[in-house]
TrEMBL record:
Highest taxon above the source species: Bacteria
Claim: Plastid is one of the keywords in the record: no
InterPro entries listed in its UniProt record: Acyl_CoA_acyltransferase, GNAT_dom
Record bears the keyword Acyltransferase: yes
Name of the featured protein: N-acetyltransferase domain-containing protein
Annotated N-acetyltransferase domain residues: 25-168
Pfam families, alphabetized: Acetyltransf_1 (PF00583)
Length: 168
């Protein structure tokens, strides 16, 4: 949100109303001024503040490879209410070139307004324009809300299995 502050938004002042129609959503590339909002939205969803991570991602996505990378925000009435980031990856793990969604977050107070769907649709359009025919993401097994969202977008369990090991 340009010209406002997060405390006013969170206290309800200038807050986007629950039920505002999704047609008022404007999707655009993220800008440096959006980073504070992105950090706050992510922190509200994950419980962790990661300003350095988001700064690094923004800077990396601002470099070349336009058309293969996307870091988008959703605005309603000039207020950032969500974001998505992802990029086209080529032939990792023996897979065909595909689009990867790294992060998608929408203000929890207005999640039912199809903002996440609009962000996802836009990044899928960018991926399709880059020539890929598949989109992937990774989700924690326990995160049923995010799993349900991506299933509603047509994603299903793919052919790869995530594996990990703790490095103590």
């Amino acid at each position: 949100m340009r010209g406002g502050n997060w405390e006013n938004v969170m206290s309800g002042e200038n807050k986007v109303a629950v039920g505002e129609v999704a047609r008022e959503v404007h999707i655009r590339p993220a800008e440096a001024d959006d980073l504070a909002w992105i950090v706050k939205l992510d922190e509200s969803a994950t419980g962790q503040a990661k300003p350095r991570y988001w700064q690094n991602l923004y800077e990396s996505f601002s470099l070349n490879r336009t058309g293969c990378r996307a870091f988008l925000v959703a605005e309603i009435n000039g207020q950032v209410v969500g974001f998505i980031s992802g990029e086209v990856r080529d032939f990792e793990f023996g897979a065909e070139s595909c689009g990867w969604v790294f992060a998608l977050t929408v203000d929890p107070a207005i999640r039912v307004n199809s903002i996440g769907t609009q962000l996802f649709d836009e990044i899928c359009r960018i991926f399709a324009d880059a020539g890929v025919r598949k989109v992937r993401t990774m989700i924690e097994h326990e995160n049923q809300l995010v799993i349900a969202f991506f299933r509603s977008q047509g994603l299903m369990v793919g052919r790869f299995i995530g594996m990990e090991k703790d490095l103590d």
